[in-house]
Amino acid sequence: MLRALCLDLMGTVLHDPYLEALQAATGLDVVTAHQFKDPASWPAFEIAAIDEAEFARRFFADPDGERVFDLNAFHRVRRSGYCYLPGMCELLDALGGHVERYVASNYPIWIEELRAAFGLDERFEGVWASHHLGVRKPDPRFFERFLSAIGHEPQHCLFVDDREDNCEAAQAVGMRAHRFVDAEGLAGRLREEGIPVEVGPAGN
Fold first, then answer.
1. Which residues face 101 on adjacent strands?
2. Do residues 162 and 7 make contact, with C-beta atoms less than 8 angstroms apart?
3. How far is it, in rounded angstroms, from Cα 78 to Cα 62?
4. Which terminus of the chain is less hemmed in, N or C, by CB atoms within 10 Å?
């Protein structure tokens, strides 16, 4: 019996504006900007091992000193770029009363902004991110801590993510998994799991 739907957030429920924000903050195309990126700073920020100020200091380092990381520009584009993916707002609302809904995301402290901006606490029974759990997917400890927090056995949970490696990691701890493509595909999987749900016209 399916009791809990456990959803990644970025690229599954919401559009992730990271790439657009990165371009705005650096003035570079994404490929070039990533050449100057410190690969350790974002994962550390996502698990709250460093704060936002340290993340901004370390994340982008132009060896010639010609460009800096404009955190204000990054935030401006990031905050204006989030939106529900087509059909997901409607699907989440339709699931109320049929199955418990949880966020299971890799994301830093900015997830707290999204709780308010997108009514996550009204659409989900719980919101859990790497920022809260201190570890990132696909590390099995993420799923172990998440399952402990929501109080469900893994076999009663369907984990949904747009990344295959995260889905495989969830399956390795005993969860069911669905790789997200779109809301219609997820609705179909939920019907297979015995949850009666349809996706209506996409709104926001």
1. 5
2. no
3. 22
4. N
Element (H, E) at 150: helix 140-150
Burial profile 43-66: b = 16 or more Cβ within 10 angstroms, e = fewer: ebbbbeebeeeebbebbbeeeeee
What's the CA gap between 46 and 22, in Å, rounded? 16
In contact, 96 and 48? CB cutoff 8 Å: no
Tally Cβ neighbours within 10 Å of residue 6. Answer: 28
* Residue pLDDT, tens place only, 88-111: 999 999 999 999 999 999 999 999
Distance (Å, rounded) from C-alpha 102 to C-alpha 31?
Answer: 33
Contact between residue 41 and residue 59 where contact means Cβ atoms under 8 Å apart: yes
Phi, psi of 92 (to 5 degrees): -60, -40
Report if pTM > 0.70.
yes
Angle, alpha carbons 100-85-31 (nearest 5°): 125
Q: Helix or strand or coil: residue 189?
A: helix
